[in-house]
Amino acid sequence: MDIDWGWIGEHTDTLSANAVTHLRLALLPVLFGLLISLPLGLACRRWGRLYAPVLTVSNILYAIPSIALFMVFIQYTGLEPATVMIPLTLYSLSVLVPNVVDGLGSVSEPVRQAATAMGFGTLRRLVRVELPIAVPIVIAGVRVAAVSSISLVAIGQLIGQGGLGYDIIRGYQLQFPTQIVAASVLIVALALITDALLVLVQRLLTPWARGRAA
Amino acid sequence: MITFEGVTKRYPDGTVALDDVTLECPTGRITVFVGTSGGGKTTALRTINRMVDPTGGRVLIDGGDVRDRRPAELRRGIGYVIQHAGLFPHRTIEDNIATVPYLLGRRKKDARAAARELMERVGLEPGMAKRYPYQLSGGQQQRVGVARALAADPPVMLMDEPFSAVDPVVRAELQDELLRLQAELRKTIVFVTHDIDEAIRLGDRIAVFRTGGKLVQVAAPEELLADPADDFVAGFIGQNRGIRSLSFAGTSKLRLRDDVVRPVTSSDTEGLDWVLVVDEKRRPLGWARGADVDGSLADAALAPVGPTFRPGTDSVRVALDAAVLSASGLAVGVDGDGSVVGVAGGTDLLEGPR
User: Fold this and answer.
1) Closest Cα in chain A to B100
2) Shortest CA distance to A191 belongs to which of A167, A170, A164?
3) Is B100 an 8 Å CB contact of chain A?
4) Which residue of A has its CA nearest to B87?
5) Separation between Cα atoms, residue B46 and residue A29, nearest integer Å
6) Rounded Cα distance, A148 and A92, in Å
7) Given A110, A117, A120, which is nearest B51 (Cβ)?
8) What is the third-level CATH fold of A5-206?
């Protein structure tokens, strides 16, 4: 297989534009997923019986093929980015909800008690003590969700919203391997860079967690 | 003063954690709650800061019912130390200590400065201020826990098995440290432990709880050892009650003998089994066996002095320990300069307390 380096050089503009779209389509759902997972995870911690059904539903959602979900949402949202981002948001829940629950669970009982005994109210304890302590485990979930979302989003090209997925499908249609390889390598690179950035964010946000197993 | 008036805690399932407990914890003193697990001592402690609300009776702090205060506000005025310290892993040592001052709205700079002063007070290096809890040993974390409880200078401190999870050597250090701090600060402390020795060591008053949340006896430690209220208390105190009560018997009235003390320049051991050889400042050099001395004591073979005691300061238990470990069977009493005041034998020591 020959790589046409010249083509890559001539198409850096479109490739990088597609990469930006790709990242937006992949990462916004993770952000939305996180915003949904936080209250959902808190509710699961608070009412333990909720956790099993929530986990089951989010796993079932994850098991539904993305194409099937596109077909469902396309009726409501059309050939728009939302049609790709809604399923990806739902997928992210199956990783993020358990991690939010585990993160909050990583706050040890003595810490919780000490906070209460020193005069933290419930809300203040949550915001100042429990959520900060949950951060490393939550970010571990965000890393998995982000990387899988970056790889999954390419399939969105089936409804015209795939970022670098466009180049993969286009390359296939034109029997032009260079375009497929370039887009694939870019997708992997984006995933690796995003993951590295998240590790960096975690290091900066939680210097106290460095000595721990988490 | 903290007052328990007929305090009962009954859970919906019928379990009784506290059964009609009436008790006073005097201001400026350490009151220790001790007992078997399930005896309700921790529950009793938690009724003071409203982490548990009783189903019957009242808890008063200086005459005011704790239930008239909002829990969060009440708790900011009560120091709290627990087993495993419960430090916030995501906050530096100084910020852990400053937790309550922050909650009270103090300025960060002032709160941190105060935290650093407290660190020194509880025996922590100032260099640890910016570290995180995971970087500290268990004993150091527990010191931070104590500093954190003291940070807002609350008149009342609750301590729930604070030293149970550290090794015995560190525990003894922390106990000494607490007594030293208490001598300066005179807080009203309620201390929960299952360790009767810790209770006897720290408590001005000891309240013994038994299964079912019943308060069996409240007494000063010496009284508890001398006169346990019933078989449960006697059994809980354990063996060697008599020997241990000697820790509370003073040596100020002890009659000390001087007849066996000889300067090193002397050679007179006439009729004595053992003589205590001292230098020109009366500091003890060792024991010489009378029969073995031939000529000057300066040339005699000396057995080591061993541990000594300070008459009037140390307890009879310390003196008795010194006597048992002494080659001659006599305990050597010394003053602050280490000069010999006199010696006492085992039977002399036991005359006073009886």
Assistant:
1) A118
2) A164
3) yes
4) A111
5) 46
6) 9
7) A117
8) MetI-like fold (1.10.3720)
The pLDDT assigned to B135 comes to 93
Q: Which residues of B touch A127 (CB under 8 A)?
A: none
What pLDDT does B56 receive?
94
pLDDT score for A211: 59
Residue segments in chain A with a per-residue pLDDT below the cut of 50? 213-214
pLDDT score, position A214: 40
What are the residue boundaries of the structural domains of chain A, listed by start?
Answer: 5-206
Beta strands B188-193; B30-35: pairing state: parallel
- Structure token digits, residue B40: 């309700």
Integer CA distances (angstroms), A57 to A26, A60, B141, B163, B223, in order: 22, 5, 43, 46, 65
Residue B81 pairs in a beta bridge with B159
Across the 354 residues of chain B, what is the mean pLDDT of every consecutive 10-residue run? 96 93 96 90 96 95 95 94 92 95 94 93 92 92 94 95 89 92 95 93 95 93 90 85 83 87 85 89 91 82 90 89 90 92 87 64
Asked if B143 contacts B171 with a C-beta cutoff of 8 angstroms, the reply is no
For residue B70, list chain A residues with Cβ-Cβ distance below 8 A. none
Strand, helix or coil for residue A164: coil
| Rg for chain B, CA atoms, rounded | 25
Residue B150 burial class via C-beta count within 10 angstroms: exposed 0-12, middle 13-18, buried 19 and up: buried
pLDDT computed for residue A213 by the predictor:
42
Strand order in the sheet with B188-193: B78-82, B156-160, B188-193, B30-35, B205-210, B214-219
Domain B261-351 indexed as CATH 3.10.580.10: yes
ipTM given for this complex: 0.82
Pairwise CB contact (< 8 Å): B90 & A117: no
Q: Are B352 and B320 in contact (CB under 8 A)?
A: no
User: Are the beta carbons of A114 and B90 separated by less than 8 Å?
Assistant: no
Residues 6+ apart with CB under 8 A from B150: B79, B118, B121, B122, B157, B181, B185
Contact B335, B310 (CB under 8 A): yes
**What pLDDT was estimated at residue A26?**
95
For B2-248, CATH gives 3.40.50.300
Check: CB of residue A45 under 8 Å from CB of residue A125. Answer: no
Please report how many Cα atoms fall inside a 13 Å half-sphere around the Cα of residue B313, on the Cβ side: 8
**Local structure of B71: helix, strand or coil:** helix
> Taking CB atoms and an 8 Å cut-off, how many pairs form between chains A and B?
74
DSSP B311-354: TTTSBHHHHHHHHHHSTTSEEEEE-TTS-EEEEEEHHHHHHTT-
Which strand (E) or helix (H) includes residue B274?
strand B274-278
Domain segments of chain B as ranges: 2-248, 261-351
DSSP lists the bridge partners of residue B301 as: none
